[in-house]
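## retry 2 of 3
previous attempt timed out at serialization; input unchanged, resubmitting
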Amino acid sequence: MKKIAIIGATSGYGRELLNILEENGVSADNIFAVDTDSPLGTQISYGEDVDMDVYNLRDFDFGSAQIAVFCVAEDLTKHYVPRALAKDAFVIDCSGTYGTESDVPLIISGINDDKIKEATRGIVALPSPQVTQLMLPLQGVIKRYAVKRMVINTYMATSVCGKDAMDELFNQTRKIFMNEPIVDDETVFHKQVAFNVLPQVGEFIGDETKQEWAMNVEIKKVLGTDIKVHANCAIVPVFIGIGAFVNVECGTEVDVDDIRNLMRDTKGVVVFDKHVDCGYVSMNDVQSESDVYVSRLRQDVSVENGFSFWSVADDLRAGIAQNAYSVLQLILKK
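## retry succeeded, writing output
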């Protein structure tokens, strides 16, 4: 098997990808765990019985790996991807850094696998976890019902902003209970995130935030159509996961029962929709799950041909790591 380097092995995305690789029987001998500023002797667990050495990114020789999966921030991705490509390592970008470039395929496995053939630069990108989470349940619907517009409201856990953001939520929560000031723990969001909802994810680009802008661009690129998208993104005081209400407008008359069946038949999607008290899936229910869950599916009577649904998923595992593993399999087959 080809050697795989996981860049950002100790990040949330990196750890989940390592878990998935181990669960699928990939030997630790075929993996390089790489991270920034890792002191000599640093190790990370791989399954229950193996501890892997963590290589320092600054000194890592990309020539020793045939595939490099980047699970680090945009600045590090921009700096080190050219080094990997120069050593002929095939790159999977999980950071969104290269996803908007016209000659870099943006892939959600199961939806546009054929785009792997267009990776002429030796690099593919993955969309943001919320886009993967929404596109998976809709893939059969889009083919049958000519979707023309989506309005998306996402409720995103602090994990989408990294470990420091999760730590900030924890520290603020603890200090509030202890009646201590939290001003020193407002460095990531610049506001109180504990027991609060923040209608900003990323910096502003005009009237939109970066995540709202990215969702619009990524959905259009994945589908290869000029579908209309309006996204609203907020941070909620949760550690892991993304929840989203989605309103979909179609060009043909919709049958909600048929849509429910299409979603049920989609690999990686679980429909749990009982329309009774607690007959839905919440963000807390999906941590460490690889599937995307759908509930609250119903007709949207405010438009002529519309429906809406609620979706939740573990952004680290289902949103990025599972897609990265599936794309990795496409590359190995190619």
